[in-house]
Design goal:
Strands 2-3-1-4-5-6 form a six-stranded mixed beta sheet, with helices on both faces. A three-stranded mixed beta sheet has the order 7-8-9. α6 crosses α8. Helices cover 36% and strands 23% of the residues. By secondary structure, it is an alpha/beta fold.
């Protein structure tokens, strides 16, 4: 039997459920999920292996019009998703009328790559609205296949995955068959801590934060982690720490619980907070945190 392999890249506006879909395909929580926009900052690969296939899923940041250097870097990750895709998944939800940046929609109209348009969150809609939305998107992207789904409820997700397998080109595996992602352990430590900050803090605080894991020491029984939470201003440092360190402690406890599930091992974590002024607009700092500025 011939082996199939390829890149399936997921794009869409913020909060359409891209990370939920990718995690559902993989069966593991690789992409962090919160109700806030711009949760995903990097391009994250998740790899699903079968005896005769390898699906390399790519979760990208939600499409926005960049306001500063960090957001510009995030959109470069989206642009790269067009360049190496064998299949493109364009996710929308009921009521959406297009991408935040219309240039990406034009690329979708003109691409020769197979496009699966996934109409998400149909569990929150009715049949009449759904039919109306399908007609609308058939006019917008006549070459795309439209699949109504609910990523959260796992409705029609298996059927979409089976369609992906049909469309995959014949190719040898790109990654070792036991590999789940292209990211190292420290990346997921940083993401899990950042997820808790997105959940627990309001306004600008979560978007001014970057995490750097300085120490990741693993032995047979325990993983010892030391991570630094970077903020842009002294006032933000005080908010992150909270009264007598209570807010930071809350983040540490919640992150530790998720990290122990993720690594299936006991975790000891130490968190510190440092001010790194205007890091979101500093190309040198952005490169340091893995945001490509080329």
């Amino acid at each position: 039997m011939a082996h199939k392999a390829g890149f399936v890249n997921i794009i869409g506006n913020p909060n359409v459920g891209k990370s939920t879909l990718m995690n559902a395909f993989i069966g593991e929580k690789l992409s962090i999920i919160t109700a806030k926009a711009q949760t995903t900052r990097h391009r994250i690969l998740g790899i699903v292996n079968g005896e005769d296939f390898q699906v390399i899923l790519s979760d990208t940041p939600g499409i926005i019009k960049p306001a500063y250097e960090l957001q510009d870097s995030m959109m470069k990750f989206v642009k790269s998703a067009f360049e190496d895709a064998d299949i493109l998944i364009y996710m929308v939800e009921i009521g959406e009328k297009g991408l935040k940046d219309t240039s990406f929609l034009e690329k979708l109209k003109n691409t020769k790559i197979p496009v699966l348009l996934l109409l998400n969150k149909i569990d929150a809609s009715d049949q009449h609205t759904l039919e109306e939305q399908i007609r609308y998107w058939q006019e917008q992207l006549p070459s795309a296949e439209i699949h109504p789904i609910s990523a959260l409820r796992n409705f029609n997700v298996k059927e979409v995955f089976e369609r992906i397998l049909e469309l995959l080109p014949e190719a040898p595996p790109y990654f070792p068959k036991d590999q789940l992602t292209d990211k190292p352990e420290r990346f997921f430590v940083n993401e899990i801590i950042r997820e808790k900050i997105l959940e627990y803090y309001k306004k600008e605080i979560p978007y001014s934060v970057e995490i750097e894991t300085e120490e990741f020491l693993e032995d047979e029984k325990i993983i010892r982690i030391r991570s630094v939470i970077m903020v842009e201003r002294d006032s933000q440092k005080g908010i992150i720490i909270g009264h007598k360190g209570a807010a930071l402690k809350r983040v540490g406890i919640a992150a530790r619980k998720d990290l122990e599930k993720f690594f299936d091992k006991q975790v000891h974590i130490e968190l510190y907070v440092k001010v790194n002024k205007n890091w979101r607009s500093d190309p040198r700092q952005l490169r340091r945190f893995g945001y490509d500025q080329k």
